[in-house]
Design goal:
The protein is of the alpha/beta class. It folds into three domains: 99 residues, NAD(P)-binding Rossmann-like Domain (Rossmann fold, 3-Layer(aba) Sandwich), CATH 3.40.50.720; 101 residues; 141 residues. It is 34% helix and 23% strand. The chain is built from 14 helices and 15 strands. The protein has a six-stranded antiparallel sheet with strand order 13-12-11-10-14-15. β10 and β11 form a beta hairpin. The longest helix is centred in the C-terminal third of the chain and has 18 residues. It starts with a strand and ends in a 13-residue tail after the last strand. The C terminus is likely disordered.
Amino acid sequence: MLKACSISRNINRQAVQILMQKDISVDVWSGEKSPNEEELQELLRIYDILIIGVKQKITKDMISNIKNPKIIGTLSIGLNHIEKECFESDFVDIVNCPTANVTSVAEHIFALILDLSKKQHVPLINMYKKCKGIALVGKYLPQLTPLNKMYVIDSLEDWEQVESEFPVTMMTARCDCSKGVNGKLPSGQTFNRDRVKEYIQEVKSAVPNAVIILQDMKKGTNERIHTQGGVCLNVKIGDYVYMDYVGPSFDCREMCLGKATHEAWNIPWSEVPFMKDLAITKYKVSEISQEGYIETAKERIAFLVKAFPDRADEIFETMPKRYKGISRQAFRDVRDQVIFPLWMQHEQLLREGLGSFGVEVNIVEDGTLVPMEIQVPDRFKANETQER
């Protein structure tokens, strides 16, 4: 069996699977820093295939003693990090990725344009942790963001200035206060725009320096009754991904408030790119009993009926009577659309100080994943628990 080693942790999971199907084993560089010249030379001695990024420089001296066939693949368009003499070797083939990062570069440009158009929100977003967590979803999981627009409102005057720009009648409102501030905030709500002023007054009465986050959400992404469940991820880069799940008719609220977790998995960080469907059982660490599930269902029903009193019959009818476990498709979607993309961006997350973070993901009725927030490390360090 041939052996490959990827220096870059950003290697696509499907690429790994293709190599394994060709009877090629794949390892991922586990060092905290990029390998130096001696370490790269040793890797070339051990492995038949070396997958590198632009930060790894390959010199003629590193390959001068190679006497058996090797392949060096670079996850880049350019080859300027590989000395030209290396291309003359009889034993080393060097390949690149001619169309690599084309989409990412385009997305980055658009993100910069959007950032320029929203500069007025940057101070508030950086000051208030929940605001920043919502913004981070758009940065790291842009294909899944549920927002069309987000406004951070600090006063009734702020609302009056943007009211005409807000395009919808129904909106989702959440509130946030800076770290260490006393006071229990009202819960997040979905309501008619006519209630915005009343909600602002409620929030300001509870915590005077709090802000209100008004969200124009994409159709169907703020459903709370007809859901396929919710997922909360606790990520520690280089160590693990801990995943909690609640089932249909629930969402992340229960897990964030410590009221319910129906299943949980502990996935080693190094195993993320190699996760197959069997991971649904391999890494499971807990599952709720049916008796425990019934108690959580009662609490959820009480919450929903209070929030939507005119839909009580619908709520009772929709709530499953038994817990049947997460579906394979839902587990697969969370793996492929959330966990692995974040794994691929771990270096950027580390540069932003996000070595440890959480992710809230609701799963709506049609199976669409709706990440609500990437929780920054000090997200829950306020003196009192905040409702949501």
